[in-house]
Design brief:
With about 130 residues, the chain is mainly beta. It has one helix and ten strands; from the N terminus they run αββββββββββ. A hairpin with a 5-residue loop joins β1 and β2.
Length: about 130
């Protein structure tokens, strides 16, 4: 019986891991071409689990973020850390190295990315 319970636990455990939500999700809400250019604007809902640190990364264009709910701290290279409260917004310059951290509550942001077509939305920085 113990062996059977161990076998069932081994089969169930991976399913639990798969079912967990990623600490950061970006849901694309809309895309729009920027007329006369090779850029597009991407509107996204960004959801970050509580107490999550997003490691340093960049974006290929300017990003505007508006905190809908939660606690959020942004660290943009060369600037002091900035903690946002719901209703506040921020701007991340193109190619600026930055890291982020959510507080005790999950954070939800509305983000507007300006991206050169064909470029990745986010690039990790070692």
């Amino acid at each position: 019986m113990t062996l059977m319970l161990a076998a069932v636990a081994a089969l169930v455990a991976p399913a639990v891991v798969v079912a967990q939500q990623a600490p950061v999700t970006r849901t694309i809400l809309s895309r729009a071409d920027v007329p006369g250019s090779n850029y597009e604007v991407i509107y996204a809902l960004v959801e970050v689990a509580a107490k999550t640190t997003v490691p340093p990364h960049t974006h290929p264009g300017t990003v505007f973020g508006y905190l809908l709910e939660g606690d959020y701290t942004m660290r943009i290279e060369g600037q002091p850390p900035r903690t946002l409260q719901p209703g506040e917004w921020l701007q991340v310059p193109a190619h600026a190295v930055h890291a982020e951290h959510s507080g005790d509550r999950p954070a939800r942001l509305l983000a507007v990315f300006t991206v050169e077509k064909g470029k990745p939305l986010t690039t990790s920085v070692p």
